[in-house]
Inverse folding.
């Protein structure tokens, strides 16, 4: 059986009852975590501009636009809500493939759920699990890794995950699901140049994937046929997009038995996941030893070469980033924030915060160093070592191999609920606390929910 057909069979056959308890809990966490990121993301004026533009198009009132309010066609709602979720870089991460999944799958799932009417919680969990799993598996299969081919893995694979989630929620049969995946292939896109350029469009690429995934499912439902040999064809996905560098066993091995989405990480800080191990280390030092910014003489970060190249070059630019997008991938700045502010939160990426003189002074003292001995570590985002030397000569060192939020050092349901509450403080429109509490309760007990779409209504003006 061709891989596309195997995936389609997996999508059609997999039910809530087939999911391990671990997977069910990860999905429920991902739902709330993505909503947290999206609610906070509505604070951004460019996100508001995108929402206003899309809402001006009008159309069938199917699905809710989070926080801003209004009901628009499902694929357009998914676009806006995905942009909001991605804009602050707070959503999940799959460390093994340096990809992300929830930012595409969750907005698509809620948009389709609203459009089709009443969807119970168990059906939503199953559909989201399938989409998350497929994104993670397909991203792992790209042997070239993040940036290896120049395509952005999370959006390139995200369109297939969104198409699979949509197909599941629509109740498509196996042949229709094959077509949905094939139609998704015609829309697979996303590039790493946007990251190199620190362009805002980086925050839209996964939204494009969510929108395209829903469109793929809807077209397949209407009888449009799609490419069948998506994976093994002469012009298949990995042959064209990854120059043949792939391990397709990552897609198919134990499909439906082992769920790769179980390895998703959740972010305590609004920055690239590979910055979290050194941030954890710096915070541990300053908090444990009560170090003030004026006490610091020098800060040294030892890390793997690929993270040095990704997060620290050119050094002067990374010490003084000019935009939020640049700051979220600038390790010297992030470590300076951690040392000066004893936390790294959304407020530390505003235009005013980027001009903070105390942070700038610390950043000028941050020196990143490549440490070959760290290459042998098993962690995908660590280990990292931070050394802080004080003015009086004392030196404190901390090594972190597994940053907070990963499978080895997970965030609890309670911690993600707290993240959701904190993120709600930044929403464009204030959301009453009673509604926030209800959303937290529904996500935690999604398997008991009769109408999952209620969550979207709770997070919009009434």
């Amino acid at each position: 059986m061709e891989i596309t057909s195997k995936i389609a069979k997996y999508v059609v056959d997999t039910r809530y009852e087939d999911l391990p308890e671990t997977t069910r809990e990860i999905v429920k966490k991902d739902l709330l975590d993505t909503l947290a990121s999206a609610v906070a993301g509505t604070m951004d004026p460019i996100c508001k501009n995108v929402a206003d533009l899309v809402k001006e198009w009008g159309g069938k009132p199917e699905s809710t636009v989070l926080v801003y309010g209004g009901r628009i066609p499902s694929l357009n709602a998914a676009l806006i809500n995905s942009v909001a979720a991605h804009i602050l870089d707070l959503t999940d991460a799959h460390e093994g493939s340096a990809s992300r999944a929830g930012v595409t799958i969750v907005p698509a799932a809620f948009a389709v759920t609203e459009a089709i009417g009443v969807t119970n919680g168990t059906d939503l969990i199953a559909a989201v699990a399938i989409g998350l799993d497929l994104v993670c598996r397909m991203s792992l299969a790209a042997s070239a890794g993040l940036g290896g081919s120049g395509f952005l893995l999370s959006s390139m694979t995200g369109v297939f995950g969104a198409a699979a989630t949509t197909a599941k929620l629509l109740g498509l049969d196996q042949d229709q699901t094959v077509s949905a995946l094939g139609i998704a292939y015609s829309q697979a896109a996303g590039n790493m140049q946007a990251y190199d350029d620190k362009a805002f469009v980086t925050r839209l690429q996964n939204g494009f994937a969510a929108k395209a995934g829903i469109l793929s499912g809807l077209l397949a439902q209407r009888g449009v046929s799609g490419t069948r040999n998506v994976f093994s064809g002469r012009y298949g996905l990995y042959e064209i997009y990854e120059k043949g560098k792939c391990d397709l066993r990552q897609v198919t091995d134990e499909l439906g038995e082992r769920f790769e989405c179980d390895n998703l990480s959740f972010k305590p800080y609004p920055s690239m996941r590979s910055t979290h191990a050194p941030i954890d280390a710096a915070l541990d030092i300053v908090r444990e030893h009560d170090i003030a910014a004026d006490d610091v003489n020098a800060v040294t970060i030892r890390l793997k070469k690929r993270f040095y190249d990704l997060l620290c070059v050119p050094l002067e630019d990374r010490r003084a980033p000019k935009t939020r997008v640049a700051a979220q991938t600038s390790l010297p700045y992030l470590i300076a924030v951690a040392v000066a502010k004893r936390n790294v939160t959304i407020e530390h990426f505003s235009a005013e915060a980027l001009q903070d003189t105390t942070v700038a002074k610390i950043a000028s003292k941050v020196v990143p160093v490549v440490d070959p001995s760290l290459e042998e570590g098993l962690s995908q985002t660590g280990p990292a070592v931070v050394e802080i030397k004080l003015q009086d000569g004392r030196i404190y060192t901390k090594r972190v191999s597994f940053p907070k939020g990963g499978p080895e050092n997970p965030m609890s349901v309670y911690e993600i609920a707290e993240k959701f509450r904190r993120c709600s403080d930044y929403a464009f429109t204030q959301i009453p606390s009673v509604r926030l509490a209800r959303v937290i309760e529904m996500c935690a007990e999604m398997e008991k929910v009769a109408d999952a779409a209620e969550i979207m209504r709770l997070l919009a003006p009434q």
About this structure: The first helix runs from residue 3 to 13. The chain has two domains: 3-268+412-458, 273-400. Strands lie at 63-64, 71-72, 93-94, 264-265, 296-303, 366-370, 384-390, 395-400. The radius of gyration is 22 Å.
